[in-house]
Amino acid sequence: MVDWYQKLAESAETGTPPAASMMVSGACVELTQAFDVLPLYPEVNALQLAIRRQSLEPILAAEEFGYASDNCAYVKADIGAYFKGITPTGSPLPKPALVLCNFVGCNTYVKWFEHVSVIMEAPLYVLDVPFLRAGEPSADAIAYVVRQLKELVVKLEEITGKQLDMDKLREAVWCSSQVEEYWSKIKHLARRSPSPFDAYFDAITLMGPLYVHRATREGVAFFKQALEELELKAELDREAGVRERFRLVFEGPPPYPHFRAFRDMFAKWNACAVASTYSTVGGLWEFGARHDPDNPFESIALHMIEHNVTNRNMQQRNEQIKRYVEEWDADGVIIHFVKSCRLFSAGQGDMREYFSRTLGVPTLYVESDLADPRYFSTAQLQTRVDAYFEALEMHKSARTSAHVG
Amino acid sequence: MNDLYVTCEDIISDIDFKTVRDWKDRTGGKAVGYFPVYAPAEIIHAAGMLPVGLAGAGDRLDIQHADARFGSFICSIVKTTLELGMTDHLAAFDALLFTSICDSARNLCYVMQRNFPEKYVDFLHLPHNPSSPAAAEFLASEYRRLSARLEELGGEPYDEVAVLHAIESFNENRALTRSLCDWRAERPHLMKASELYALVRAGNYLPVEQHTEMLVAAGAEFEGRAAKARDSIRVVVEGAFCEQPPIDVVRIIEQAGCYVVDDDLTIGRRWFTEDISTDGDPMMALAQAYLDKSVYSSVRHDFRKPRSQGLVEKVRNRKADAVIMLVAKFCEPAYFDYVLFKQELEKEGIPHLLIEFEEKLFTFENLRMEVETFAESLLFA
Amino acid sequence: MRFAAGVDVGSTQTKAAIVEQNAGPVAFAIVDTGASVTRAAENAFNVACREASLQPADVGFVVGTGYGRYKIAFGNAQMTEISCHARGAHALFPNTRTVIDMGGQDSKAISVDDNGHVLDFVMNDKCAAGTGRFLANAAEVLGLGLAEFGALSAKATHPVKITTVCTVFVESDILSYLALGKKPEDIVRGVHLAIAKRTVSLARRVPLEPSVTLTGGVSRNEGMVAALEEVLGVPLQVSPQAHFAGALGAALHALDRVDASFESGVWRTAV
Predict the structure, then answer these.
(1) What ipTM describes this predicted complex?
(2) Which of C 154-193 lie inside 8 A of A, CB atoms?
(3) Are residues C9 and C79 located together in one domain of the fold?
(4) Contact (CB, 8 A) for B57 and B120
(5) Domain range holding A215?
(6) Does residue C187 fall inside a structural domain?
């Protein structure tokens, strides 16, 4: 990631390689990689500012500019930081040669990228991705996205002055398919008890490299090594007899400005996330989907439409969590509502209803925000989390004694 | 006009949907409710069904269940629409249709689908990239998919001629609506904004032919009116394209010294700037019209032309003095557009006032004071 | 040791309860929380001991609960007020299936099983108060004491509609209605109904099954009880000790700990 920020700083100073703003979800980073165009993720900037506790100042600057207190705080952190000349690492970020709104489910992104394009005076291309309704996308939807990807190729050719090299594209797509294989295996390690890593709080540190380096050889090497290290840790934990007390599934993005405090609330109870929907924002691969070097355009299109959580509907998200609960053997579900992100959050109360009442899975629902530090109340959250575990403990001991009896 | 106007206000505030139930009893047909802002009503009409534009429950229903399903920071219309469902007010609807206007509305679609499995609940993806030559074909495929699903639901099989007739009926209705709006913009003292609003919005709950007759009758009645103009500023009201404010808000804006000469309230009834073509494949014609003949709207994405430019043109065309941004609480598309609208209006020297509202408002004193002050500041400047 | 205690440190008041094995509650105490949570907890505990004619050392185990639970210096363990209110409400009314707890700063709804254990719970969100604080603010705007405020509600004939549950905006709503010449009792009733609707909506997120027991300080407001019953459509169980439910539940959880047969691992040492 440090390497990526260095490249961005170089690009900011020399103008090469050119950078394209993209959104993480369903990013077609294989295509930009084939042109050696650097991906620039405004949401990663916002996230980095938030986790470094630097998001409030830009958020306030954006609100002065006219954004509402109920606008997405990622957008405000990103745009406010531009106004204020703040960057997460202090090194400069390039002006995008192309603002590529690869839409994927989030209407806020369309506005965000439109604003970035106006404010930074950079050209905008909206790559429209039909929302996934049925289990599989229609042929019309795939054709629509493929045709737009080819329009995008023309744009990238204009920007870089290079022709598309199909071999290079296939190589990038192949790298992604390998990374996806390793990442999927890592996710499946969490099915063991104990899980060698936390699939929410730890997974987030692996998500950055996933978006930035997925379509590269460096990415393949990185995730191969990550898998090996975690496999080793799984063995050591098993031998040492380490056990987690509770296994959880997390839904929704984390509260980045209070990441540590939030994590500690669960760590205190020795609870471990064994799966999370947030870690499938970049791609949902643990159920088998992969990029396909033999069909680069179609497989990029399929990735954008079908294989990332944000372009899937609420019922499909319910099913995804249900599979985690069953196949990853979880005790309960934690739903973290973030006020910024209506894509994730609108209707999560109904999701809570589905899990706690229809399925009888103990479910905790809490509210705060992913980038705005002002919506996190430690005492209130602590009480909810503690009460949840107190009840869960009672259930577990009641279940155990029932089995014994 | 008074009777017609009272009728319209009754229709738009009726959360038991009597007009819909009456139509169903009379015809034995099925009703399809669509969440604002826009839906291809022509296709529903051609299937022999009644398209009904839903607009939440206004101030007529307390939220008792929906708060639990949608958390804090979610707009009211999403909650009251779900509340309508959970309190059996949507029993008359056989299908519910949503479109890609915002994330909350889309998630509502799937919450509805889970909670009301007996209904056909679907989501239309309206393209966000009209610059792509592939967009029209994709949208036409969406429309064909809808048409096929309506047929499965018991609608008339797809018939090109029926869709063309439907387009003609809606073209006629929209042309009349446009001319009433134009007529009123010239003579705002002769017709209250609240009257026009109720008249236009009533079309959401009626068969199009019946509503067209009402528009004709209203036009004739308006022509005969005479009154003196008041000392008021001319404003464009922008931002309440989905969740609707209480009609008293529209009244108070006018009472407080502003003639509302244009607005985007229930914009779906005035979605097209000109007639939809009745030549060739009607599904392609509908799709092409959405992409190229639509009004600008905060929930229709078209980066070929900035929406702020659309707003400034509206102000200039209507010879308006100012803009009132009337934004529903938690409406993210409107919040976002406000930022760029504000920049553009300030650049153009057009004064504006921002007002945030919720469907449920029972005291209006603050609103009245704000609007009065705004109007006074311009009248006596 | 036959005695155990619970101390519930709330935002405005601190409550203590002492229970005796096989006998039930023997003493309750209540003091204002004031600036020092630690001192308030000690005071309440000491008052309860005196009430029960006990020395603090006679009490075998103390559980602290409420927002100030981690600040109780002499406690043996802490539990959340959710687990404690559930247990306390169940002790007051063993048929309880749903607990609505309305305190000074927040309200909660808890679904409980036959033993008073939590099955599910929800709490109000941060901004939308709908709590004791909100009522106190509304009473102040009308120039009424809290007791008067609660009683006046019964005289209403045409309650006004209050939309906001924000403590800040309710003031302007009330002033608008006063300016329109609305009667104070109709406004008061409107405020109570607004909170009742909000609270019942909250409670629907857990299975809202009878019997419903109301706990917390707001249970002393008769206008609020009546409004809640109207909106719920079922009578509420309200004990004269309702505001001690948290402390009582904490004391009962403490008693489990005194009783050596209980081994669940719920307990944590003080932080």
Answers:
(1) 0.96
(2) none
(3) yes
(4) no
(5) 2-404
(6) yes
- DSSP state letters, A385-398: HHHHHHHHHHHHHH
Closest partner residue to C204 among B65, B360, B366, by Cβ? B65
Q: Are residues C64 and C100 in the same domain?
A: no
Looking at the structure, tell me whether residues C135 and C209 fall in a common domain: yes
Give yes or no for A292 touching B (CB within 8 A): no
Residues 6 or more apart whose Cβ sits within 8 Å of residue A233: A196, A197
- DSSP of B315-355: HHHTT-SEEEEEEETT-HHHHHHHHHHHHHHHHHT--EEEE
Q: Which residue, A340, A349, A344, is CA-closest to A310?
A: A344
Instruction: Give the full edge-to-edge strand order of the sheet including C236-238.
Output: C118-123, C107-112, C98-102, C212-215, C236-238
Q: Could you tell me the residue ranges of all domains in chain B? A: 27-158
Compute the nearest-CA separation of B353 from chain A (Å): 13
Cβ of A349 within 8 Å of Cβ of B67? The answer is: yes
Q: What tens-digit pLDDT sequence spans chain A (405 residues)?
A: 788 999 999 999 999 999 999 999 999 999 999 999 999 999 999 999 999 999 999 999 999 999 999 999 999 999 999 999 999 999 999 999 999 999 889 999 999 999 999 999 999 999 999 999 988 999 999 999 999 999 999 999 999 999 999 999 999 999 999 999 999 999 999 999 999 999 999 999 999 899 999 999 999 999 999 999 999 999 999 999 888 999 999 999 999 999 999 999 999 999 999 999 999 999 999 999 999 999 999 999 999 999 999 999 999 999 999 999 999 999 999 999 999 999 999 999 999 999 999 999 999 999 999 999 988 888 889 999 999 999 999 877 776 665 543
Taking only the tens place, the pLDDT of each residue in A64-82 is 999 999 999 999 999 999 9
* Chain B with chain C: Cβ pairs closer than 8 A: 38
Q: What is the pLDDT of residue A340?
A: 94
Q: Are strands B95-99 and B120-124 parallel, antiparallel or unpaired?
A: parallel
User: Are B362 and C161 an interchain contact pair (Cβ–Cβ within 8 Å)?
Assistant: yes
What H or E segment, with its residue span, contains residue A171? helix A166-189
Q: Is C197 on the interface with B (CB under 8 A)?
A: yes
Length of chain B: 381
Residues 6+ apart with CB under 8 A from C117: A391, A394, A398, C86, C87
Query: Strands C24-32 and C59-65, how do they pair?
Result: unpaired
Same domain as C207, residue C117? yes
Chains A, C: CB contacts within 8 A come to 55
CATH code for B27-158?
3.40.50.11890
What is the span of the domain harbouring residue C182? 95-238
Alpha helix segments (H runs only) across B53-159 = 76-86, 103-115, 134-152
Question: Which A positions 250-269 lie with beta carbon below 8 A of chain B?
Answer: none
Minimal CA–CA distance to A339: which of A45, A19, A39, A76?
A: A76
Q: Which residues of B touch C198 (CB under 8 A)?
A: 67
- Are the beta carbons of A350 and B70 separated by less than 8 Å? yes
What CATH number is associated with residue C74?
3.30.420.40
Taking only the tens place, the pLDDT of each residue in C1-32 is 689 999 999 888 999 999 999 888 999 999 99
Residue C63, helix vs strand vs coil: strand
Assess whether C117 and C233 both reside in one domain: yes
A74–chain C nearest CA distance, Å: 21
Name the strands in the sheet holding A246-251, side by side, starting at the edge strand that comes first in the sequence: A271-276, A246-251, A332-338, A363-368
**Calpha distance C187→C162 (Å, rounded):** 8
- Could you tell me if A182 and A257 are in contact, meaning their C-beta atoms sit under 8 angstroms apart? no
Taking a C-beta distance cutoff of 8 angstroms, is the pair A2, A210 a contact?
Answer: no
- Number of independent structural domains in chain C: 2
Rounded Cα–Cα distance for residues A301 and A304 (Å): 5
